[in-house]
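Notes taken during the Thursday session

The instructor put the following on the board and asked us to keep it in front of us for the whole hour. The protein is VWFA domain-containing protein. We were told not to look anything up and to reason only from what is written here. First, the residues (1308 in total):
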Amino acid sequence: MLRLSRNGRNWKRSLVKAKRIGDVSPLVKADAKNSELIPRGFARLLDHSSDSLRHIQWLWKKDILGQDSFLIGPPGPRKRWLALASAELSNREVEYLSLSRDTTETDIKQRREITSGNAVYKDAAAIRAAVNGRILILDGIERCERNVLPVLNNLLENREVQLEDGRFLMAPSRWDHLVKTGTPEQMLEAGLIRVDDKKESLNKLLDVGYAINSPEARKLGAGVFPVDMVSRLSPLINEAHTAFSLFDRLYPYESGMLTDSSVKSVSGLLASDKLDLPRERHQLSIQNMTFADDNAIINVSGKTGIMSKAEDSFSLPSTALSSGVENPDRIFHPTGGRQHQLVEILASLSVGDVALIGNRGVGKQTLANEAARILGQKTEPVLLYQDMSARDLLQQRVTDEKGDTIWRYSPLVNAALEGRIAIIDGLDRLFPGTLALLNQLTQDREISLHDGTRLVSAGTFAEMLSEQKISPADLNAKGIIEIHPAFKIIALAEPPTSKSQWLTSEIVPGFLWHQVSPFPQNDETSLLVQSLGIEQSVAADMTRFAHSLRNSTDPALRSIAQSFSTKQLIRVARRVSEYPSLNVREELQRAALTNFLPLSTQEALDRQMNAFPAPSSAIKSTQITSTPENLTIGSVSCAITPAREPTKVPSPLFYHNDAVLEALLSDWILGEHILLVGNQGVGKNKLADRFLELLQREREYIQLHRDTTIQQLTASPALKDGKLVYEDSPLVKACLNGHVLVIDEADKAPTHVTAILRSLLECGHIRLPDGRVISKDDDADIKLHPDFRILALANRPGFPFLGNDFFGACGDSFSCFAINNPSMESEKKMLRSYAPDVDEHILDRLVATFGELRSLADRGQTQYPYSTREAVAIVKHFQQYPEDGLQTACQNVFDFDIYNEEASKQVLEVLMRHGIPINARNDDIRLAAELREGDARLEYERHSGLDTDKPKHGKEDPKNEPHVGGNTWAGGTGGRDTAGLGGKGGPYRLDKGHDVHQLSDEEKADVPEHVRRAAREQADAALRDRLKEINMSKHDHEAYQQFREPIRNDITNMRALFEGLQAKTKEREWLNNQTDGELDDNKLVEGLVGEKLIYRRRREPDNNDQGFDNQKPKRLTILADCSASMYRFNGNDQRLTRQLESLCMVMEGLDSEAARNKVKWDIVGHSGDHRYIPLSLVENMPRTDKERLKVLQECASHPQFCFPGDNTIEATREQIRRLAADDEADERYLILLTDANLERYGIPIKYLRDALDLDQSVNTCVICIGSLGDQAERMKSGLPAGRSYIVKEPNEIPAILRTFFQSTLLKL
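Then, after some discussion, the predicted structure tokens were revealed:
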């Protein structure tokens, strides 16, 4: 039992440390037993303004009243500083607990530990504060899960709580009353513990909001400027570092954290003369460095213009005596811009921790390593991943050799204690609530660990030693440990986006921010020439091409630019330098895996590559020569050594892709790791195994899946004899023994899991879950073998495989190869090897059949890209069981689609076309699609010269003979007053199918206003009558089938497309800290000590969870063209019919349960009369044929009765704004159907282009379904690649939409 000292009455009013604020003095505890728990140095961090003093006075008042306090305010350290300063001035001991989404009840109350084989309870922060009369500060209430904090309710309200070890904490008044009936010792023996009557709980709610503190900035909605951190930069404000140049470090407003409009507002505010910020930026460089008294002193200088010169000197604590040696594995190109940025980073490190923001491949890691080298500091790589908990960030719970539970420091804590520079990679991957845990460390240089240990700054540690007059060992024994003064953090992150806004106002104050941009073009060219020795002209063409993509206005091309980062250009240049015969264009295409880009994007990229010679189309014959000492593939040779473990060398059956093997070998010689990407079944595994067989290299194999964890990829925990042990994964074995790790299905694992490979491949360093380090350093726990390589295999991103984008996440760390199906000759050769007895003609027909099926899949007309794997399955069956016949052998593969009528029909059509008999019933599956032919009509120019009188419908001709001119018959052409085509003054259009005699626009416009007004009134009345008639149709089914029947196949393809759309949000999340479900490997020690919350289970993301993206549907709007020209020229090119069939196809394609859950859609139209015609709304999407027919009939009616005009631009803008405002969407799409008739109304195509770019959160495309002359072609050429298409037949729509949806994936 714990005996409590009854010192609650020893409190007294005095002014030991604090002065009076107004008429209020604090309650000061003069006899603190644990003075190391009293905060130090926080009072001087405050500005001592009246506002700060008022807050501290309020806290003292609450203390005197014995009330708990709750501080609410903008993000930043100010609330924490106020609470700690109040405690410091009143000489109060503090227990500090930073809350996160991973905080559990045991972190607050009690935790079990195993000591000497016995399970014992250890009090956590809240209980220690309660029994010892300390202030409890809970930081981050909003980050904690809702079901955790109620455990404190009874303690806060009644000062009582039942503990897991059987003790009961009791309110002081009740304890004092009960103790009169017995002795304190008897009370303790009964498990009754007195709560100290001066316990104070300060709950700090760190609010995430957008309000800048100055009155002008509050109106911008542009985030919270960290005013409390301005003083941190005061030592740097001089002639070398102006206040303007330091602004971005505190507030990286151009990094992506703000919207475009907010960035413009902040930029305008900075440009205001009211701020009076000097705007000069000096280009600084290091002049010299000295090392003395455990400090690195850096002298820099620079100049602006001709005469102005700036000099500066700053120092940083360092454990080195000189700068480090150059790292041969890193290329740091000391251009003026990079030198200046390096100086700025070093200057920031002299006053705080630094974060570098930039896209992949721009050199963040290189800058961080170079800064550490200059300072002579050792680095500690810290890789963050999405599933990392707040506990993992600081400590890990393990067992020692006796089986007792202990806490192991994380790499970050080790770096803090040893004075290393922690390079934290992946700030953008961690949940913001977990990342906020670092705020206390970066802002205060203090942090409380989960085992109760407290790390403090060197200055605070020295003050404690002086006050208590004890040794450092004694202070360490009290749980107080010094942070080494040379410890620094350099964090790396990719920029925030609208989809991943990780840089919140709570995170901003924690670091000094530096944005790392790509090299300027000239500097990048110089880097390639000087470092790799390629020709100046080739390097210039490469960098010019890369910069054209980075600066493109086309979002798809800008996204592809990430595949041509400086890192990738260096990789391409190295290959070209080493193998001059390589084609530069082909190498650039390989770097971006252009084979898997949408066709329209490929075409746009090819136009950007015109400066490079096209690759040869000749088929290259590659010879392989292998001896025990040497391997030659084509023109590339390398030495080989016999395998030490021959049983681990694969031995596959392989018959194609020798040319790919040559390219693989050339990159292997350069030391690259390899990534093979392709459709399933194209032979990636066989290619990898054949390559390793030729090299005589041992293979370690691991197959990933959606539930693969960091532990499974590295070292998996297990309990053995009551001790926690770790079993090495194939990755660890390969690193240790120098084997090749083959990672199969690399795209199936979450990208935050596979992202740890980046640290291993780029830095040669990775820390395992058991604390061991794999590194190139000689003193590493596991020295990385120089022969270690990774050969990863992944399916192509996107539909239909829908894996994770491994190429996007890790592709720039590998040399990438797109693996396609073998050529027809190679495929036939492979099939022959499996089926030597099968007739030659059957093999020919099979090869041709699969070639056509793959072509259909590429065009979007079938869903599955049948591969060589299926062809092999057919011939193997036919070889072994020829008596079954070819039909049965084929059915083993193609029966998968037997329950899909249209899919089966397409496959059977291809099979029968190539002479492969399949017994399909004619009444079940038709073998030919119906063809529709439209008769073109003639048009004639005509002049009437007669005046209009009174608009009318006109007489109906029962014989439907053509009528030209006049004003009697309905459906005539070139006349006046009656409904028809090509005339003037009629109420609406009416097409009887005859040739058109067209009046000129000038004559049609010369209509009196009263006639025009009467015509409009008649048109409106006729439209109302038509819409009523639609609801009363008696032949709905027959009418609808006229639209549906010709496009049955296309509806099937469309339905499969929509059902297969991949949501950007994760399919389901792991819910941790559960009482049931699947045992969590990270909770084995907790299970060992008997805790209950050791399970995890899958769940749909909770809408209220902070840090989780909600599973939201996609939002689609079809904007139909209901203008007059659609009806007028339908007889020419069937544009209105094509639009109606396209809308029918989309509505039918979205009519399935799976599609309804994934896509919320509507169809709206526009005409010359209206910019918004609601045809089908989201809240009332059509579900029956009758409802869909009504949409089609309304869409057909408006073009007939509306007046000429065009609202395309206005309608497009309105719908984009509406979509952008929809927060309940995963992605937003606008598809504009148009007949490309803008020029008729004098509307430049540029206006449409600008409208489509109105909001980048909405993916837009234009589908031209009609055209007069080359209008559609001109429109397409004036719009961005991948966002404009021309349709001649409705069956082209599914392929176009698939291409469009795939192109939007490039924007992720």
